[in-house]
């Protein structure tokens, strides 16, 4: 097994945004007399925009218009994002390892483009990304494989030669379904998720088993 490119999820994998999303859910549900739970958050993880909001509406039998509720969610999230944004443990070391490997790597996130455009400038490596795919670029969100099939297209390689890192069950299912070499890196919100079919469940971005899937610096990458 060898890989020639890498696709990275963002929320909960590179940045601790799930904590912010949970706060957004709390605010929205408190306004409607409901409680936002971890169970509901897990249903929403990895889903794109209106699909995620649909889970919220269905879960609490809300009568809100999905488009209006999504806009309200965006307003709350945008207000919290930059002040609350934190990198996941080991992010800088993992990016350094990616650079050393010589493999092209890109972002494949269900987040909206406008929020990705807020987050990436806070990093020192956004200009090194081979591609950026967001929830605005797909019709079907995770667990549908569309996101990772498109990522493989952007990398100009078969999905089976692409390494995908995901933190959630929905995201991992999308990558596995696309045929990618999938590594789950669960966080405190997703440790109980199902990760069927993944190559590895890593402890963190600094897990030596994960690093070992990348070629050593100076290794010639097969065409």
TrEMBL record:
The keyword Hydrolase applies. GO terms for molecular function: hydrolase activity. InterPro entries: HAD-like_sf, HAD-SF_hydro_IA, HAD_sf, PGP-like_dom2. SUPFAM superfamilies: HAD-like (SSF56784). Keywords: Hydrolase. This is HAD-IA family hydrolase. It comes from Rhodopirellula halodulae.
